[in-house]
Amino acid sequence: MARRFFRRAFTLVELLVVITIIGILIALLLPAVQAAREAARRSQCSNNLKQWGLAMHTYHDVQKSLPIGMARTPRHTWVISLLPQVEQSGIYNAYDQRMGFWQPPNIVTNSEAGLMNVQVPLYFCPSDRKGYWRGDDYWRTRGNYVVNFGNTRSTPPASSAPFGFDQSFGLHHITDGTSNTLFVAEVIMANADTEWDCRGDIHNDDDGAFFATVNTPNSGVDSCVICTPAGSLRLPACTPAAWTWPRFNNSASSPAVSSRSLHPGGVQALLGDGSVRFFSSTIALSVWQALGSSQGGVAVSAP
């Protein structure tokens, strides 16, 4: 008679042990996987900033000045000026320079057809979302990179920052040295497209295309002309700021948006020499403000 062999099945206890071990391994591996993904996102973000730096230097080689930070007549921001230098000549050539950013064909109200609604990959840090502005009828894209307006809440005086309202500066104005002056830094855009929140509103000349070094990275309360008092779900509540002319009056309620990021511990920023550095949220305010000034006469090097 043939001998029969029976294979013993897993008991419930053994199965639970195996599941527990797998769970522990996943728990151990997940932080490493997340850290690797964030490292990749941070690297891409750094590369985006370097591309903006190259674009600014190429623009300066031709125009002998940096682009205007934000202009009122016609209304536009620095982003438009640099589109040809970041391989977006199609948008730039179709953009009507005689019109403000909010007018056709630049923006088509309540429509995705406008040029300012096009999402260029270089606008975004991959650690954040790809957001739009849908707070009113003038639909447009948001972005994560904005230029430095220095450590004041008012319109920067000549040469106190590398960018400003209705004024452009050359590299020769940066007497503190390009390697010691911030050009572009990250911001976190509003959590929802429909939020009335200036942060990340890079095409709007009101107050969405710049940051100030009034506060250190990821600190303080932002102040915006375009501001939902409740604030974003991921951001501190912003303080409503009155729009004044000339832009802006120098008061505690004037616009000032801090550089912020979703990278743990700090933000990445582009310096005037084209290098990109990671700045800790714990950087001393005096150092951060010295880096925000282009002609402050303060001897400080980027950490």
Helical residue percent band: 10-25%
**Category by helix and strand content:** alpha+beta
* SSE arrangement, N to C: HEEHHEEEEEEEEEH
Biggest β-sheet strands, sense, barrel = 5 strands, mixed
The overall strand count is 11
Radius of gyration, Cα only, in angstroms?
A: 24 Å
Task: Identify low-pLDDT runs.
Answer: none
Distance between the termini: 84 Å
Tally of individual helices: 4
The average pLDDT score comes to 89
Strand content: 5-15%
Strand order of the largest sheet: 7-5-6-10-11
Q: Briefly, what is this?
A:
With 303 residues, the protein is an alpha+beta fold. The chain has one domain. The protein is 23% helix and 12% strand.
Topology:
Blueprint (H helix, E strand, L loop, with lengths): L11 H52 L6 E3 L2 E3 H5 L6 H6 L37 E2 L6 E2 L3 E4 L33 E5 L23 E2 L11 E2 L14 E2 L25 E6 L4 E5 L4 H8 L11
Parallel strand pairs: 5-7, 8-9
Antiparallel strand pairs: 1-2, 3-4, 5-6, 6-10, 10-11
Explain what you see.
The protein is globular. It starts with 11 loop residues before the first helix and ends in an 11-residue tail after the last helix. It is built from four helices and eleven strands. About 25% of the residues lie in helices and about 10% in strands. The protein has one domain. A hairpin with a 4-residue loop joins strand 10 and strand 11 (about 275-280). With about 300 residues, the protein is of the alpha+beta class. The strands form four sheets. The protein has a five-stranded mixed beta sheet. A two-stranded antiparallel sheet has the order 1-2.
